[in-house]
Amino acid sequence: xNAEIIIPVLxxxxxxxxxxxxxxxxxxxxxxxxxxxVEISKSLNDPDKIEKLMAIFEERKKEPIDYRRSGVIxxxxxxxxxxxxxxxxxxxxxxxxxxxxxxxxxxLIAGYLYPxxxxxxxxxxxxxxxx
Length: 131
What we know:
5 helices, about 85% helix, flat
């Protein structure tokens, strides 16, 4: 085979192999947790304890997303891209930096307009009830 054929074929296979490897890795990681839960649940007779055990293994975050934090991070990423465009790569990167920075500012504003933690919601309701 020629190198003219091998390189594009390897490029296409890489696009397939990487996601499959990631899915397989996730499967193996979850398999160990599931096997451990099954072994522990065999010795437990109380269904409430089994539910508590499964809640421990659950990886989902219970806390809401903090839009203020992610807005600040996104704003500074935009500023960094803008500076990179100013000093090195030109006007296209300046435009991308401005876009990302404005998205970050919008996210930051959304974080202040829509409180998301329980404490913030409680204080917002109390402020409203005072009026």
